[in-house]
Structure formats: C-alpha cells, structure tokens
Amino acid sequence: MDIPEGYEAYFGGVARRRAEISARVEAALDRAGRAHDAARLVAVSKTVGVPEVLCAIAAGYRHFGENRPQELARKLEGLEAVPGLPALRFDMIGNLQKNKINAVLGRAALIHSVSSLHLARAIAERAARRIDEGASVSPQDVLLEVNISGEASKSGFAPDELRSAMDELQGLRGIRLRGLMTMAPRGDKDRARRTFSGLRALRDELEGAYPSLDLSELSCGMSEDFEAALEEGSTLIRLGRVVFDPAFELE
Asked: Which domain holds residue 192?
C-alpha cells in the first residue's frame, strides 16, 4: 500500500520502532517459555489520525485499539475510503458509557473494559437486541476489567466482586466472555508484575470454577511494562506512544 504523502519519514520511524518492539516481545516470550504467537500487540491509535494509522498498517500492524467511540467510528470511516487495505481489527479499550454502547457494537471486535455488572448487563441487553433484529449474528466479545492492584483511581471489578458476579455474567445472552483485563500501577515494576500475575491467577481460578468458559485472553501491559506482562501471561499488550511516537524512548 502507498504511504500517505508527506509521511515517508514518519513511516520509516514507525517501521524501525516496530522491529525493535517485535524483538523485545519475542525475547520476553522466550524468557517465559511461551510461543511467539502466544500474544498479540494492540496498537493504540487514540492520539493519532488516519494517516498515522495508514503508516502503521504499512509497517505491518493489523490490530488497533481506540478508547473513544467517536474516534473508533472516525478511524473506521476514514479507512473505508482507502482501497486495498488488508484485514484489520479494531478493539474498544477505554471506559465505555452506557449512552455510547450502540456506537461500539458492530464496530469493535472486542470490548476490553467491561468494568461492572451494570455495564455488562447494558451491553448484553443491546447486543441481544441487535441479534434479535438481525443486525448481528453473534454475541459481543468482551473482557472483564479487574482492579487487581486495588487502587482507588482505577475502575473495574474488585476480585471478590467479580467472583460474586460470575454466575450472572456467564449467563448474559448478548455477550461472550473472552478473558480479563487490568491496568498496573505506574512507576513500580514490582507492583506491576504482581498485578499481572494476580490477573493470571484469578483467570485460572475462574476457569476452574466455570469449566465451560474460555477466559484465555489476558489484556495487560502497556508501553512501560509490556515485557513483564508478557512474562506473566498477557495475550494482548496495548501499546500507544511506543508504537506511534518514534521519538519515545524505550527503556
């Protein structure tokens, strides 16, 4: 595909950075004894426009994440006008308000941030309605956001709250549970690693309690801590600045 006019230098930086990130991802997976295809990178495109996304696509990225429904719609509409693009996937990774659910359904392959039973019910209700109306053929895939670190500033189910809600959650018709998501404390590598390992342990516990569920996706790890997340079992790392800002310094 063609590089957007005037973005040749930017594309070069994104492509070089992708090679650096890929090498570090593979090294982290090697250290954990995991296969190189055990995890995927979600390029978080929330701060860039369609030309930058096109450069990322040309560099080899295929999986993107947005945190605002209106930006998700804008990116998808902009890309629809570009011929010859490869198959792409967009996820919704940010906090989702009830009045924005309809703007996400049918656009996002996966919602990473179902942070409460109340929100899960609302998404399930509207997704089930789309199925009944023939607008969709399958439930909406979602991840359950868990506040593993217990920080007051973070949203998500407390682990005990999630345990109590699982009977209802796994029975909601309009959604399909795919796994868990968390965000680690910033600036503390030890706490971040404990957060990631805690998410994996909670997933293993829930799969043991609900054998029919497949909670294989663990969405955790961002630009400053993705290697530790991969070593602790993450299957989806969410990288923004490190992907789209070639000047961002990799630690």
From this structure: 8-244
